[in-house]
Amino acid sequence: MYVIAMYDVGQKRVGKMLKLCRKYLNWIQNSVFEGEITEVKLLELKHKALLIMDEETDSLIIFKTRQEKWLDKEIVGHERQNLDTFL
Question: Which CATH class name applies to 2-67?
Fold first, then answer.
């Protein structure tokens, strides 16, 4: 599945969440990530995120789609990270 994930966490936890999310998805902008991920890996990401988060104040939002091709993506301005892969 293809997901877009974003988090909003307290300042003390930002670094840990950034590091965690970069293990599973591509970092595209500040607290926003995207990429292909299996259901098992997504469950693992959510579980590990809950260990970092304060559930009373922090959030992790995940948008899911079957494949990236079903998502229209438009970038206005500078794209922070180009996700093209060269082999």
Answer: alpha beta
**Total-model pTM:** 0.79
As to burial, measured by CB atoms within 10 angstroms (0-12 exposed, 13-18 middle, 19+ buried), residue 13 is: middle
Q: 9, 58 in Cβ contact below 8 A? A: yes
Distance CA 29, CA 36 (A): 17
Sequence-distant (6+) residues with CB within 8 A of 8 are 31, 58, 59
Per-residue pLDDT of the chain (87 residues; tens, 9 = 90+): 999 999 999 999 999 999 999 999 999 989 999 999 999 999 999 999 999 999 999 999 999 988 666 677 666 666 666 655 544
Q: How far apart are CA 30 and CA 71, in angstroms?
A: 21
Domain boundaries, the chain: 2-67
